[in-house]
Amino acid sequence: MEKIIKFDTVKQYNEHERVETLHPLVSVVKFDETPKLLKLRAYFGLYAIFLKLEKCGDMTYGCQPYDYDDGTAVFVGPGQIYAVDGGKDLVVSKGYGLVFHPDLLKGTNLAKVIRDYSFFSYEANEALHLSQKERNSLVEILKKITEEISLNLDKHSKTLIVSNIELLLNYCMRYYDRQFITRSNVNKDLLVRFENLLKNYFESDIAENLGLPSVSWCASELNLSTNYFGDLIKKETGITALDYIQSKVINEAKIRIFDKEKSLNEIANSLGFKYQQHFTRLFKQKTGITPNEFRGSLN
């Protein structure tokens, strides 16, 4: 099995990239100044943002193929595995890497909100695809961070470095929101696959064996992380992925309730409910009446 490199400190990452460590908790690496083997499998105990200005090998992230091309940003959070396989030759790639230790954020506003940047927890296959103008904006912020790191540290250094990191993350959040729109064809194709996934779920005996389809199960089947999948469904439909799934469950329930030869308990079990009362509660929550009342209204 291929060896996994561990990057628990900024210094360890810098040594791998063959650059000097100017700050113990944060570093910006310009890749075209550091020739390297583009074959890497690494565990990160750090936050990392890789701005790639060209495609440089097949990428996996969270053990899944990554939707990745030139002009993209990739985000890695502490505890995640990141891998690139670009062959065995020593090459010069174009782009930037920003790594920072969680300790850099202690006592700052960013420490409180870092979890809100959900792209750090994406474990599957959606990079941030950037226009030239967007790339330029991020590069300018990275240059500001680099400038601060290269200065002698003073009482303002941490505030200015973290503020610029937060600014960069906010721009990335804006660009991700834009991406949900500009990549609408990809998103709509995903919705079709989601619909078919739920259709097959209820047409087979999966529900009886696994229970109700969860958001995380659906995301995994579609090779997406739970967070990205949830964000995409909300953007495309205006409701949460859980609400979307529950609406499909209720629609399927209404169809099955027509079959009066089956008891409501049998219907509940076939839909994946462990207990009939859970089925009754959700049905009434979504429709305003109980399954039994709905069946009676069909007479």
From TrEMBL:
Signal peptide from the UniProt entry: none
Key words of the record: DNA-binding, Transcription, Transcription regulation
Pfam family, one: HTH_18
PROSITE patterns: HTH_ARAC_FAMILY_2
Positions of the HTH araC/xylS-type domain: 196-297
InterPro entries for the chain: Homeodomain-like_sf (IPR009057), HTH_AraC (IPR018060), Tscrpt_reg_AraC-type_HTH (IPR020449)
Protein name per Swiss-Prot or TrEMBL: AraC family transcriptional regulator
